[in-house]
Amino acid sequence: MATSAAATVWRPTLPVNPVRATAAGKVAALLVLACVAAHIPVLLTHLPHSPGTSLLMLALSCACLFCVGHLWTKPTIRDWSTTGALAAGMLVLHAMMMVSMTNTLIGAANTATPGHRHRSAPHTVDAAPPPSGTLELLSYGASALALIQVFLAVVIVLPTMFRSRSQRTAV
């Protein structure tokens, strides 16, 4: 008898995964495709200089493609959360790469000038040149599109989470 009472009170720990914002899902799917397309020239440019980074970029772009079909047809909260997390991760990686490229350029400038040096030995890095022109525009454009994806995901997922929480506490 105690088990049947406990079974009626038990609630699943995972929230329901409802379909939300189908029109916005189509917009998000197009944003994902645009981001992946923007990475192709950057990937091809960086491939000879840093194949590891290029392969990571290719893997993350392919991971983003898995959500496109779901976002286009029936975007669920899980799809929105995954898309937002991948876009946020991509923004963090872009920021880390920009800082890394800046530090590499500053380090090269410090080792080239005589006198004051912060490093014990000069480092030679076979890095791709920093993006310029069209590649720079693609980089900033892809980052802006990823930021829009994160914004869309947050705007769609948060109200559902709060609604779900209020419905659980009301019961």
Terminus-to-terminus distance: 22 Å
Total count of domains = 1
Poorly predicted parts = 120-126
Largest sheet: none
Radius of gyration: 22 Å
Number of strands: 0
* Helical proportion, percent range: over 70%
Give the strand content: under 5%
Arithmetic mean pLDDT: 75
Count the DSSP helices. Answer: 5
Structural category is mainly alpha
The topology string of helices and strands comes to: HHHHH
What gross morphology would you assign?
A: elongated
Keywords: Membrane, Transmembrane, Transmembrane helix
Transmembrane segments: 27-47, 53-73, 85-106, 137-158
Layout of secondary structure:
Elements: H1 2-9, H2 22-46, H3 51-73, H4 77-112, H5 134-170
Quick summary:
By secondary structure, the protein is mostly helical. It has helices spanning 2-9, 22-46, 51-73, 77-112, 134-170. The chain has 5 helices and no strands.
